[in-house]
Amino acid sequence: MSGYTQRVRDSILPLSVAGTLPAAFAEWAFTENTVDLEAPVETCKLCSQQDLRYHFEIANRYTEATLWVGSHCILQFDVAVLEDGRRLSQEGAKRRLTKLTQQMQLQSCIKALERLAAAENNPILTGALEYYRRNKKLTPKYAAVVFWKLQSFRIDHHPSFFQVELRRAQHIEDLRQMPTGRVHQFWGSLSTAQRRRAEELGHRPPARGNST
């Protein structure tokens, strides 16, 4: 038996009625409770994987025991994920957990913008916060200012969690006219397709290791 399997057995079987792994996992389900630890500092209580940022709670319907685990273990061991009382398929469960992770990332972005708006009395920053709350994206103009200020105030944030609006003609034109150095402020928030579009508009990629 591998060390990984033994860790899982030692974690789940004492909290379950069944004495074998497949039967034991059939007793457990995702509770819909999640937590964003805001940094990769936690350990999965099932498999002992380290450096987790997001925890998902699972519970045993017989023993009422609970464990905080990573989403990978929920999928790996086919722990039930329910929606309106119906068990989701493996693909449905994956989509549900991904959606919850994205919601936590969205809240992380909003918290960073709230801290930023509180740090400086600036209508651009309060406008960016309200725009992101409504649209879940930043315009290129907002993004350039926001990421500059986030770095200036040393507010913890993850550029890849943010999204930038680049569908409207005005936003594309704003990006075209923007100095490349300002585009680099939010390069880490652009999707692969958006980065290609930025290059088509004349912006070179930032030097390796210098993107936000």
Kindly describe this structure:
By secondary structure, the protein is mostly helical. The protein contains nine helices and five strands, in the order ααβββαββαααααα. A hairpin with a 5-residue loop joins strand 2 and strand 3 (66-69). The radius of gyration is 21 Å and the shape is elongated. The relative contact order is 0.08. The model has no long low-confidence stretch (mean pLDDT 95).
* Unreliable residue stretches: none
The SSE string, one letter per element, is HHEEEHEEHHHHHH
- Sketch the major β-sheet: 3 strands, antiparallel
Global shape: elongated
Helix content: 40-55%
Strand content: 5-15%
Q: Which structural class is indicated by helix and strand composition?
A: mainly alpha
Mean pLDDT: 95
By DSSP, the count of extended strands is 5
**Oligomeric state of the chains?**
single chain
**What's the end-to-end separation, in Å?**
44 Å
Record keyword descriptors for this entry.
single chain, 212 residues, mainly alpha, two-stranded antiparallel ribbon, 9 helices, elongated
